[in-house]
């Protein structure tokens, strides 16, 4: 009789690519399901349209009358798209998105009904949200949480539902989501950057942070996925011997994409494009069955909403193609994990990318100002950057010789390094002569030329300058980018404010503006030197070097999460108006809880799979061997029979050793889990799960993977890596 695994694999062999209906130009679909500005112009009276623009650009509140008009227009438009329901779409701290659907339909008398949606329903909703994580902010008796409309991200229709992007806050006004602090951080960096831009260009009145994410993922056939409880419940293979052929040939990377996969990609991209997500890039990634999807960058809040929408779409549409998408950071040990590079920059209303070198000395000084301030921000707050990307999944990836290390550093390339060194050495103390200034300006003026051949991109750095943006590479593939973007924009805002103040003091003392800026930059360059690292971030030498430099190496999530309680971190978020001490504490608590749950579930699944799948399979095989040995003895007699059964006997012994060691390690882990569960404080519990429970995973896995190699392939219950990782 075939095992579940064999049946599943048979299914896989019979699969053919799914047919995609749409054959037209995708450009014609772009934004079709979005209530964007052009649609608003068409559907809204002109005063309501003006209020909307005002609200989108400056965050001003719409009054009741306008909100009613917008709601009514939104509904009329959504009905033309076939929508029957609406939902406030929000980002609770679970990490995914949430929605609660309500019908437009409203009975108004016997046999009579209308489609209703007004300003009240648009602006605010009270979902029954008592089960979303709140870190102790909402007592259950005041379990109410509100969602409130975010006009800066347009509403959209998915299926038959109008989705309205919202923030999620408690009854007492504390944020319970990612969006609200993100909007605050974006606002903070806007103000701080506009102030600094005034030194260079008085026309700058608005600065937007931009985000271009790159989403990596694995695809696994649905049948194989369903035959692996570990993948189903935790998103990663807790067991599994590496396939004989892994990624060493590098034949998958940028190779041709299998047809079944192309069909899937086309399908979700088409949907994404209708939702206004400008996805343009798709390719194979390094590991077999690993892929990447990336859009053109957008304003940060919108880009982040789009990433969350896309992750959702990818999961939904994968099922249509008999795939499951794995967004986990490390689904398969032995091959690369998945990240989500966050490309970040700042753009002005005048169309300037503040992190792109300009055409003349003046704009280059502006570039240099934002560039150096970013490095200083990273230097001063590297621990928070580490904390904001910490998760149980990302722990398997960071520092795994394929992903950025857990040590935060910044890579800027040799040319810019030389330039910064130059400024550090050559800006003279005391008053600068006109010649000094001219020389420096000349140097700065050369930036665009030197940048042209800035090709030495370092893939091993967690935070790299890539010509016209920084790329934060340590973000995990399943993460909400907001977590990283809240931190990056907050620390940048803080740094720019400090910078502005210092430059103003110098100007007040009589230094010229350019001189004041240059001298301040020189100071920042000196102070932030240790965060700059151009070498190989994967090497062991870097770990030692980083330690000498005094850079922190927070190796796992619990240690990284402790940062949120540091005095300077609490103060920073409070004074910048992003998160109150209470909100921050709640977030830390939630993160600890998330970590505990993730590791706990993995530990449980390990136990279940061992007891109910591995041990029975191994015993079955032992019985086969025993029968065979007994048969040989029966036929050949005891001595000759045993001799003839040498291989089988040895195999039985090896199997027994691994099975017993596996079971012993699993039992020890179980005891450790019981002890951990007794701890009341979530921080202690997270540490116990990390240091006492999780530490047994590798040993357990080692023995299971050995057994996989010893037991008859026909009897092994779990789909193997070679079956899962090579879609044809
Ligand atoms: P890779 O890192 O894979 O080599 P690229 O360097 O080509 O990729 O670009 C990666 C991403 O950077 C793209 O998704 C693009 O949208 C984004 N990007 C480009 N310019 C900016 C910018 N000014 N702000 C934010 N993201 C940007
Ligand atoms: Mg990249």
Helix/strand layout:
Elements (H helix, E strand, L loop, with lengths): L3 H10 L23 H7 L2 H13 L5 H17 L4 E6 L7 E6 L1 E5 L2 E4 L3 H5 E2 L19 E5 L6 E3 L2 E10 L8 H19 L9 E15 H5 L2 H6 L24 H16 L4 E6 L5 E6 L2 E2 H21 L2 E4 L13 E9 L12 H20 L1 H7 L3 H4 L14 E2 L2 H13 L7 H12 L1 H6 L10 E3 L4 E3 L8 H28 L4 H15 L12 H10 L7 H5 L5 H9 L5 H56 L1 H7 L1 H33 L3 H12 L3 H14 L10 H4 L4
Parallel strand pairs: 1-8, 15-16
Antiparallel strand pairs: 1-2, 3-4, 5-6, 6-8, 7-8, 9-11, 9-12, 9-13, 9-14, 10-11, 14-17, 16-17
The site of magnesium ion has 3 residues, from loops.
Mind telling me the C-alpha Rg?
29 Å
Percent range for β-strand residues: 5-15%
Number of separate domains: 3
Q: List unreliable stretches of 5+ residues.
A: none
Residue share in helix: 40-55%
CATH class of the largest domain: Alpha Beta
Mean pLDDT: 91
Note down, in words, how this protein is organized.
- The chain has 728 residues and is of the alpha+beta class.
- The protein folds into three domains: 31-176, Roll (Ubiquitin-like (UB roll)), CATH 3.10.20; 186-232 and 248-579, Creatine Kinase, Chain A, domain 2 (2-Layer Sandwich); 594-724, Four Helix Bundle (Hemerythrin (Met), subunit A), CATH 1.20.120.
- The protein is 51% helix and 12% strand.
- Strands 9, 10, 11, 12, 13, 14, 15, 16 and 17 form a nine-stranded mixed β-sheet that branches. Strands 1, 2, 5, 6, 7 and 8 form a six-stranded mixed β-sheet that branches. Strands 3-4 form a two-stranded antiparallel ribbon.
- The longest helix has 56 residues, at 581-636.
- It is globular, with a radius of gyration of 29 Å.
- The structure holds adenosine-5'-diphosphate and magnesium ion (MG).
- Magnesium ion binds at residues 214, 341, 471.
């Amino acid at each position: 009789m075939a095992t579940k695994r064999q049946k599943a694999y048979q299914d896989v062999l019979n699969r053919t690519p799914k047919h995609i209906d749409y054959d037209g130009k995708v450009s014609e679909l772009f934004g079709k399901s979005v209530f964007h500005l052009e649609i608003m112009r068409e559907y809204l009276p002109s005063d309501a349209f003006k209020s909307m623009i005002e609200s989108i650009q400056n965050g001003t509140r719409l009054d009741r009358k306008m909100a009613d008009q917008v709601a009514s227009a939104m509904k009329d438009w959504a009905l033309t798209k076939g929508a029957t329901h609406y939902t406030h779409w929000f980002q609770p701290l679970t990490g995914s998105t949430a929605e609660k659907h309500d019908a437009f339909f409203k009975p108004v008398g016997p046999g009579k009904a209308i489609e209703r949606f007004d300003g009240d329903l648009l602006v605010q909703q009270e979902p029954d949200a008592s089960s979303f994580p709140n870190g102790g902010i909402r007592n259950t008796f005041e379990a109410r949480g509100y969602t409130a409309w975010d006009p800066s991200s347009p509403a959209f229709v998915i299926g038959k539902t109008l989705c309205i992007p919202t923030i999620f806050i408690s009854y007492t006004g504390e944020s319970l989501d990612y969006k609200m602090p993100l909007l605050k951080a974006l606002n903070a960096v806007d103000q701080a950057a506009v102030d600094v831009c005034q030194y260079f260009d008085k026309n700058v009145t608005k600065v937007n942070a931009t985000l271009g994410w790159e989403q990596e993922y694995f695809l696994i056939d649905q049948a194989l996925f369903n035959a692996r409880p570990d993948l189903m419940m935790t998103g990663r293979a807790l067991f599994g011997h590496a396939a004989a052929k892994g990624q060493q040939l590098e034949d998958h990377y940028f190779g041709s994409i299998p047809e079944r996969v192309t069909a899937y990609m086309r399908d979700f991209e088409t949907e994404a494009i209708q939702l206004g997500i400008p996805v343009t890039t798709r390719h194979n990634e390094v590991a077999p069955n690993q892929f990447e999807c990336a859009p053109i960058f957008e304003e940060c809040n919108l880009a982040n909403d789009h990433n969350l929408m896309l992750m959702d779409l990818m999961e939904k549409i994968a099922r249509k193609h008999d795939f499951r998408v794995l967004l986990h950071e490390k689904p398969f040990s032995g091959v690369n994990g998945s990240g989500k590079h966050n490309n970040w920059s700042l753009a002005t209303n005048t169309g300037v990318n503040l992190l792109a070198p300009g055409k003349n000395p003046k704009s280059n000084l502006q570039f240099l100002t934002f560039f150096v301030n970013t490095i200083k921000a990273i230097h001063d707050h590297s621990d928070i950057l580490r904390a904001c990307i910490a998760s149980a999944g990302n722990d398997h990836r960071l520092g795994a010789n394929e992903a950025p290390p857990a040590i935060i550093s910044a890579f800027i390339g040799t040319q810019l390094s030389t330039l910064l060194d130059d400024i550090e050495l050559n800006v003279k103390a005391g008053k600068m002569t006109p010649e000094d200034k001219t020389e420096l300006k000349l140097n700065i003026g050369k930036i665009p030329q030197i940048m042209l051949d800035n090709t030495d991109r370092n893939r091993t750095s967690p935070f790299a300058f890539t010509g016209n943006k920084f790329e934060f590479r340590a973000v995990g593939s399943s993460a909400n980018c907001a977590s990283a973007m809240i931190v990056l924009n907050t620390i940048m805002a803080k740094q720019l404010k400090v910078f502005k103040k210092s430059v103003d003091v110098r100007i007040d003392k009589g230094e010229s503006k350019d001189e004041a800026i240059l001298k301040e930059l020189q100071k920042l360059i000196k102070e932030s030197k240790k965060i700059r690292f151009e070498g190989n971030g994967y090497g062991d030498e870097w770990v030692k070097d980083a330690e000498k430099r005094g850079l922190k190496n927070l190796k796992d999530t619990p240690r990284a999460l402790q940062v949120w309680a540091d005095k300077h971190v609490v103060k920073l978020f409070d004074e910048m108006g992003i998160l109150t001490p209470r909100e921050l504490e709640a977030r830390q608590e939630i993160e600890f809880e998330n970590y505990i749950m993730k590791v706990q579930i993995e530990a449980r699944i390990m136990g279940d799979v061992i007891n109910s799948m591995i041990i029975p399979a191994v015993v079955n095989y032992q019985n086969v061997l025993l029968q065979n040995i007994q048969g040989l003895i029966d036929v050949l007699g005891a001595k000759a029979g045993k001799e003839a059964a040498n291989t089988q006997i040895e195999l039985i012994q090896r199997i027994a050793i691994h099975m017993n060691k596996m079971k012993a390690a699993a039992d020890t882990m179980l005891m450790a889990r019981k002890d951990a569960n007794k701890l009341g404080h979530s921080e202690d519990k997270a540490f116990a799960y990390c240091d006492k429970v999780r530490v047994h995973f590798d040993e357990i896995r080692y023995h299971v993977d050995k057994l996989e190699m010893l037991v008859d392939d026909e009897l092994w219950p779990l789909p193997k890596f070679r079956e899962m990782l090579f879609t044809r």
